[in-house]
């Protein structure tokens, strides 16, 4: 059915755009945690 294919093709981009935004919002806190943990790891050898 061309109509069902059109609905699927129109729905797929919305899902693909929604997923990266969700993964980005999830990956951003991970990057901030990693960037905040790196200075701690670098400071501890200096203090030791």
UniProtKB/TrEMBL annotation:
Residues 1-30 are annotated as: Disordered. This is Uncharacterized protein. It comes from marine metagenome. The lineage of its organism: unclassified sequences, metagenomes, ecological metagenomes.
